[in-house]
Amino acid sequence: MNKKESIAEFHTRHGREYPRTGQFNVYNRGEFSCDSTSLPPNRRDFYKISMITAGTGILSYADKAIKIDKPSITFFNPLIPYSWEPTSKDQAGYFCLFTEDFISQNLKSESLSQFSLFKAGGDHLFFPAKESVELLKGVFENMFLEIRSGYAHKYELLRSYVQIVMHEAMKIQPPNTFYQPFNASERISTLFLELLELQFPIDAPSQTLKLKTANEFALQLNIHTNTLNRALKESTGKTTTEWIAGRIVNEAKALLQFSNWDISEVAYSLGFEHPSNFIIFFKKQTGKTPLQLRKEFGSASV
């Protein structure tokens, strides 16, 4: 898997210096070499909302790829690897970048908490109508004015502008013109593996895995479990369950060797309600009990 791209590396890729100021920045696409810079299918460590008002290109994420040839708006978060290939020189529009620090409980309100900006699965591309395009242009122009202002509460106002953009997108039906790229299985597999790896390492006994089954991963990725299994089997030779089990075993071995947590704490952090279930799982995968392996490592007592 490719290393996720930082916000500073994103600026460097476009030949720009990262301003390193604030939690939020907004840019004009026409002034950011969006016409000549391709984005590889990486995961980024920041959020991005991009509005294209002119220009064409191909946007790809998960198992979807779509030709952009009209005004559109996209929402991406650090969970989602995506790529962009410009196919014209007349790129215009806006985009804003922000970090996790910018996310407030108010921004991630109940009505927006399940929106695509905060999820790995779902629809992340929308085609606004003409009236909506004009409204969104005005919102982005207000972002430009506000980010340059000295207003003490400007980030609160910028969060409100982001909410307006999100609500406007929620009114729009997602596109139905997606086509399957030749490497759809690889895209699904990459997204799954990124999502799986995002849960590790486990740093404290109170930290527990949120996604533990093939069904839970498929639901998060907004695809059928069979589709996920088929993609992984085709591109990696292993099933979803095999990947999950293997990663949990590797983490368990690390915790048994390098931590002094007792077996029940290790079991709980890895998503097992009862230590006995963890012991059965671990022995099935490794041929040894957790205690036997810990003794081999010469670690502290359980």
From TrEMBL:
<dbReference type="InterPro" id="IPR018060">
    <property type="entry name" value="HTH_AraC"/>
</dbReference>
<keyword id="KW-0805">Transcription regulation</keyword>
<dbReference type="Pfam" id="PF02311">
    <property type="entry name" value="AraC_binding"/>
</dbReference>
<dbReference type="Pfam" id="PF12833">
    <property type="entry name" value="HTH_18"/>
</dbReference>
<protein>
    <submittedName>
        <fullName>AraC-type DNA-binding protein</fullName>
    </submittedName>
</protein>
<dbReference type="InterPro" id="IPR009057">
    <property type="entry name" value="Homeodomain-like_sf"/>
</dbReference>
<dbReference type="GO" id="GO:0003700">
    <property type="term" value="F:DNA-binding transcription factor activity"/>
</dbReference>
<keyword id="KW-0238">DNA-binding</keyword>
<dbReference type="InterPro" id="IPR037923">
    <property type="entry name" value="HTH-like"/>
</dbReference>
<feature type="domain" description="HTH araC/xylS-type">
    <location>
        <begin position="213"/>
        <end position="296"/>
    </location>
</feature>
<dbReference type="InterPro" id="IPR003313">
    <property type="entry name" value="AraC-bd"/>
</dbReference>
<dbReference type="GO" id="GO:0043565">
    <property type="term" value="F:sequence-specific DNA binding"/>
</dbReference>
<keyword id="KW-0804">Transcription</keyword>
